[in-house]
Write a sequence for this structure.
């Protein structure tokens, strides 16, 4: 049996942001297994104070480049709640379409660029461009579809320009949307091929009982707003997000940690799926069942599979949304925004899990207080507990250092952490 | 020259593929992502350079590179040290995006006393932080690619020009020129504020194309007449605060924003 091992990974690669993994095994015992977050804080919650509401979505979007659509929408939702603005049905559809495409873009980036290289024994996607051009071309095709559709609806694939409080500065022309019909259809085939590829990978066998937190869907699998739910049976309103997150500060991280019913909980694709499985599109459900993924699944490595299932779901739902948009009128007036004193919460499921923005305004619409709770921030404590359990598990199974090191990295990557975002 | 740099061709001329590294300091990593975000041109783009260090996308980086793209602003000692090390390794250091060029949105926190800022977010916990500074406050910067986020086309142009040994220049004229060429309705006529008259072009008037006013993310155009813009904005009835908000949002107009604040203070006295 293995007795000593020392793993020291500074600035883990193929994740967004800066984090370290440390594992010490001595005399056949795990002495330490640590997930450290060392990113520099940018202090968004302070920088917003005193700014007028108009600035807020522009600035808050810059918390994260990968999920800038989600941050912008959570920010707008919080402001609309504070001012009592109800967006039109058309605006809601367009926002959801944007959200779906961000989910698709980000999940595909994670599946193919960040995660797959581990299973294909490559350091990055770059060598695969030559060795498996079809696979890379397929990933590019899906990602480009998602990005192009965000361009058409949101004005820009990153840090969207058209999304504002009340609605959109500009709406797409129908002619611009029509070609996406065929591209979405093609994406379904591409995703089923993706399922074949990922079905050929051996997902590490590991599981640790975990509480999973997400939005609670009512009529559809949830992405924007609604009640908050956990697999341990906690149910809260959107504006009670603080009771769902309970943030606290730990020395090993510049990102805050969170807890609910246990020492830690998890958010993300697997959490959404564990809480809302029945609301998945039938095709997405079928893909999930092919992977033997059903609720409640406690293997964190399966988060990657859950992302794949969600890709199928969002593409199928986007096809419906697109038809509804093409059937209706693509025109609406933007409501006038009148600021008032008050507070509002915006909860949005971004690719890595549930995100909350909270603002308090004075009667002239200036921010008095701001709070952003980031999905990866909510996951850090859970990653820490998984890492401890994984190290012990590897030790029991007598794995060599190289294997432990790879699994530890794959574990953190499976959460698809967005570290700079979590520190913000 | 060794084989490892053999690349594609451009107009029949064989290209030299410079060894290139990407780094990020305090940022949203959006500018780096933009580099991967243009799927249609990614393959030819990767043909132009050999990426040897890109932590967000690959495992196994090296210090042997010629061009370094650095994203983000600098506020901690470890970032300062890393930046100096990169400067030592790179022949060409490129500041990628407005955080790197100007300090970006990250500077907004520096309106406040640093102790207050830290306490507001972390309470009494000891967390190190400093002012958000642009790269050139600490090291020599060879090239700047402006924008929050950068435009992939501009990154590609810069890389092509480096590979061909050509000079790289950003437009000196303002966003308005591009906006007029795009035949947009002027936002001032729609009652919206816009920093287009003073902001450096090169984004192809990204925001006004979507009927959103410019926030000056690319910083000032050459000979930007900010006082003139203030006059236009006032004539259209925009509050002074609206102008200031836009001037200070992305850091490029910091100098103007400070002067503006000073004048407002003096005016108030
Ligand atoms: S310049 Fe903007 S897009 Fe680029 S890293 Fe900074 S905040 Fe992100
Ligand atoms: S919209 Fe802005 S950029 Fe365009 S012409 Fe008017 S002021 Fe200039
Ligand atoms: S229009 Fe202005 S704010 Fe928008 S991208 Fe161009 S320079 Fe930046």
């Amino acid at each position: 049996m293995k007795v000593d091992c020392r793993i020291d990974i500074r600035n883990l690669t193929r994740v967004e942001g800066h984090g370290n993994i440390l594992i010490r095994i001595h005399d056949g015992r795990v002495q330490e297994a640590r997930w450290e977050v060392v990113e520099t804080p940018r202090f968004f919650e302070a920088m917003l104070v005193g700014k007028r509401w108009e600035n807020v979505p522009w600035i808050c979007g810059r918390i994260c480049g990968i999920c800038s659509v989600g941050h912008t929408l959570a920010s707008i939702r919080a402001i609309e709640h504070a001012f009592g603005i109800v967006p039109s049905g058309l605006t809601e559809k367009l926002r959801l379409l944007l959200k779906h495409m961000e989910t698709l873009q980000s999940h595909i980036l994670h599946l193919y660029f960040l995660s797959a290289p581990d299973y294909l024994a490559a350091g990055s996607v770059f060598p695969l461009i030559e060795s498996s051009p079809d696979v890379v071309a397929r990933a590019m095709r899906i990602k480009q579809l998602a990005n192009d559709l965000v361009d058409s609806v949101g004005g820009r694939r990153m840090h969207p320009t058209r999304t504002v409080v009340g609605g959109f500065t500009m709406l797409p022309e129908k002619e611009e949307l029509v070609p996406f019909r065929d591209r979405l259809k093609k994406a379904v085939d591409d995703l089923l091929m993706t399922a074949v590829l990922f079905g050929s990978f051996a997902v590490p066998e590991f599981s640790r009982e975990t509480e999973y937190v997400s939005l609670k869907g009512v009529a559809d699998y949830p992405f924007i707003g609604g009640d908050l739910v956990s697999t341990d049976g906690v149910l809260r309103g959107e504006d009670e997000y603080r009771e769902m997150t309970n943030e606290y500060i730990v020395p090993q991280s510049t990102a805050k940690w969170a807890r609910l019913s246990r020492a830690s909980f998890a958010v993300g694709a697997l959490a959404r799926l564990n809480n809302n499985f029945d609301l998945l599109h039938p095709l997405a459900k079928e893909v999930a069942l092919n992977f033997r993924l059903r609720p409640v699944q406690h293997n964190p490595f399966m988060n990657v599979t859950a992302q794949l299932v969600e890709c199928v779901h969002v593409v199928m739902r986007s096809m419906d949304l697109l038809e509804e948009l093409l059937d209706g009128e693509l025109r609406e007036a933007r409501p006038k925004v009148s600021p008032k004193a008050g507070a509002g919460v915006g909860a949005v499921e971004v690719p890595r899990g549930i995100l909350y923005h909270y603002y308090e305004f004075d009667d002239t619409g200036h921010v008095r207080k701001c709070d952003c709770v980031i999905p990866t921030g909510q996951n850090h404590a859970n990653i820490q507990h998984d890492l401890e359990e994984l190290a012990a598990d590897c030790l029991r199974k007598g794995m060599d250092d190289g294997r432990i090191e790879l699994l530890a990295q794959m574990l953190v990557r499976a959460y698809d952490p967005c570290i700079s975002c979590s520190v913000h | 020259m060794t084989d490892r740099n053999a690349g594609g061709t451009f107009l029949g001329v064989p290209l030299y593929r410079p060894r290139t590294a990407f780094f990020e300091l305090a940022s949203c990593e959006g500018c780096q992502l933009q580099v991967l975000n243009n799927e249609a041109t990614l393959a030819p783009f990767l043909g132009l350079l050999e990426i040897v260090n890109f932590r967000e996308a690959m495992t196994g980086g090296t210090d042997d590179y010629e061009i370094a793209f650095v994203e983000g602003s600098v506020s901690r000692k470890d970032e300062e040290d890393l930046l100096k090390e990169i400067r030592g390794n790179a022949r060409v250091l490129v500041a990628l995006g407005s955080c790197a060029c100007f300090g970006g949105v990250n500077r907004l926190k520096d309106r406040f006393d640093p102790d207050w800022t830290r306490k507001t977010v972390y309470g009494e916990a000891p967390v190190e932080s400093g002012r958000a500074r642009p790269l050139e406050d600490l090291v020599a910067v060879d090239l700047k690619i402006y924008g929050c986020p950068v435009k992939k086309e501009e990154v590609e142009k810069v890389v092509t020009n480096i590979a061909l040994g050509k000079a790289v220049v950003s437009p000196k004229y303002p966003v308005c020129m591009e906006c007029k060429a795009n035949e947009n309705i002027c936002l001032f006529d729609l009652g919206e504020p816009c920093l287009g008259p003073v902001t450096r072009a090169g984004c192809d008037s990204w925001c006004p194309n979507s009927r959103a006013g410019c926030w000056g993310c690319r910083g000032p155009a050459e000979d930007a007449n900010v006082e003139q813009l203030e006059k236009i904005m006032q004539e259209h009835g925009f509050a002074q605060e609206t102008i200031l908000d836009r001037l200070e949002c992305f850091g490029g107009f910091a100098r103007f924003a400070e002067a503006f604040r000073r004048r407002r203070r003096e005016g108030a006295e």
